[in-house]
Amino acid sequence: MYRNLSIHQKHIVWAWAFLAVPILFYVVIRFYPTANAMIISFQDWNLLGDRVWTGLENYDKLWNDPVFWKVFRNTFIYLLLGTPVSLVVSFIIAFHLDRLRFMHGFIRMLYFLPFMTSAVAMAWVWRWFYQPVPIGLFNNFLATVGIPQIPFLRSTSLALPAILAPAVWAGLGFQVIIFMAGLRAIPRSYYEAARIDGVSGWTILWEITIPLLKPTIVFIVVFSSIGFLRIFDHVYNMTTTDPGGPLNATKPLVLMIYQTAFTDFNMGYAAAQTVVLFLILLIVSLVQLRLFRDR
Amino acid sequence: MANLSLRQLIKRFDKTEVLHGISLDVEDGEFIVLVGPSGCGKSTTLRLIAGLEELTSGEIRIQDTVVNHLEPKDRNIAMVFQNYAIYPHMTVRRNIGFGLRTSKLSKVEKKARLEEVAAILDMTELLDRRPSQLSGGQRQRVAIGRAMVRDPAVFLFDEPLSNLDAQLRTQMRLEIKKLHQRVGNTIIFVTHDQVEAMTMADRIVIMKDGHILQVGTPSEVYHLPANTFVAQFIGAPSMNMLPARVSQGGVKLASGTVLDIDVPSTQDRNVILGVRPDDLHLTNDSALLEGPVTVREPLGAETLIYVDTGGDEVIAKVDGRHPPVVGQHVKLTASTEELHVFDARTGTAVI
């Protein structure tokens, strides 16, 4: 029977043969649980007992939960602070690294190293940096130059940026590599033509380099936004004694979901939060793609 | 007055010397074509003039100013690149206007200048388009327009036609030549295509391995090539090259034929006899060369025949209506004025 198919049909048969495995995998491991989570978000379930249909009760509870709104704000602070900072810093590094010939490979490796490091290990090292005297590196340094202690992880206002810093640093290497690839793709003659026209370096940067890097920038913005919206392991590991503390000052949505589900065993409520996170991710990505779309 | 003058240009990249002393004077308004195989240093020469590469030693003057240490923008030049270097995210208007960014003209004057250039290049209605909406030839014109608004002393073209298809190339070749006749600026044009060089240039500069081999009008380099390289590089199909020997005022071919050419030589020496396929004719009388036809290439008006003359294959261009058939024994001749004699060892022309 296979023999009688046209070449095109044979291609299709083989394509489906290879696609079948990942599709099956995705249906069982991804799509089914996703759909299930959406159903659970309308139910009350403690993982062992019966699932009780409760309608919109979980969402109503969420809407009236002050902790959720605090967490919601935190999540967006991670996003709105982390994405632009990491974008600008990685661009500046890539822009200069691109021109550097001396030890280029080694320096690039240094920037990429944090990306390959386990987030848990990194979080614990940074946690140590942030400790008070006589343990913490930063405070020890401040003490020797006579500056008062900074309660990095114990302050409700400083803890979030203190956790964000290593998270930005961890993703930097990847973004630098992507930016450098983007920079390399711009033909040299564009810059040579601009040199002959005699425009300033600033004009070249703003009117040639950055517009031509737009696809790269879109990719990095969307990619890192998703990363910051899903931030979890850095927060969890740097505030292990009181995850998301102090006073929920650093708690992101994913951590709240984790606690609701696996500390409180309130699956319905956790599922409702998950649905909200899903919607946030969806909306943010769509808005960004639309904003950056080519006219 | 020389508009552009190059004196003993030497360029090294690290330890490799790629230009070994290039000297050239270009008159105001001349159309100069630098031609040669890839790696001959023609593009490097152009980039040195533009100031995109730094000179190792030598001197470049543009309008009697030494520009060795001037930035490209201060050299009064404009350049058209092989890939056009027009910015995809800007409209044609902004692309052309980019060339005027640093000019001291007022806004109104800049606008007038831009409109004028657009009119000359016949693309006024394209000004608000983006490069992606243009054809290859139109993009080419935008790149030229961008160079033109600067009204430079010297235009530099770096293989601008090599990205176009054959038909468009012929058309743009003509357009650039017409443009030159109209605006009259000095043009330095780099190409590897000898047809482009022949058709466009006032003078051709033939380069090889970082040396200039010959400078001359298209007619000079065609009829009086300075050496075997120029002789074979210019003209298609290439000139036939036959080993021969000079003895007692005559030239003796390998086949035994003795030609009555006066070679200024005191003693016997090996030479190369060059004859263009166009200059070989079929004959019934005493032949310069003879042998069976091995291949025919009909071109319409003419037919190229490959003749096996006993070891050497010779190409001749014959009338396309009644060409000899393959296998036919033909006799070929050429008038002595059309023959070129080169030294066998150095390749330089003897007469």
Q: Helix and strand layout, with pairings?
A:
The complex is a heterodimer of chains A (295) and B (351).
Chain A: H1 7-40, E1 43-44, E2 52-53, H2 57-63, H3 66-99, H4 104-116, H5 119-130, H6 137-144, H7 159-184, H8 188-197, H9 201-212, H10 214-229, H11 233-238, H12 253-262, H13 267-291
Antiparallel strand pairs in A: 1-2
Helix pairs in contact in A: 1-13, 2-13, 3-7, 3-10, 4-7, 5-7, 7-10, 10-13, 12-13
Chain B: E1 2-13, E2 16-27, E3 31-35, H1 42-50, E4 57-62, E5 65-66, E6 77-80, H2 92-98, H3 107-120, H4 136-148, E7 154-158, H5 166-183, E8 186-191, H6 194-200, E9 203-208, E10 211-216, H7 218-223, H8 228-233, E11 240-247, E12 250-253, E13 258-259, E14 269-275, E15 281-282, E16 289-298, E17 302-308, E18 313-319, E19 329-333, E20 340-343
Parallel strand pairs in B: 3-8, 3-9, 6-7, 7-8
Antiparallel strand pairs in B: 1-2, 1-4, 4-5, 9-10, 11-12, 11-14, 12-13, 14-20, 15-19, 16-17, 16-19, 17-18
Helix pairs in contact in B: 2-4
Strand arrangement within the widest β-sheet of chain B reads: 6-7-8-3-9-10
CATH homologous superfamily of the largest domain in chain A, by name? MetI-like
Biggest interface, chains and residues, is: A-B, 17 and 24 residues
| Whole-number mean pLDDT of chain A | 89
Characterize the quaternary organization of these chains.
heterodimer
For the report, how would you describe the main beta sheet of chain A?
2 strands, antiparallel
Helix content of chain B: 10-25%
Work out the radius of gyration of chain A. Answer: 24 Å
CATH fold-level assignment of the largest domain in chain B? Rossmann fold
Mean pLDDT of chain B: 89
- Count of separate structural domains of chain A: 2
Taking the sheet with the most strands of chain B, its summary is: 6 strands, mixed
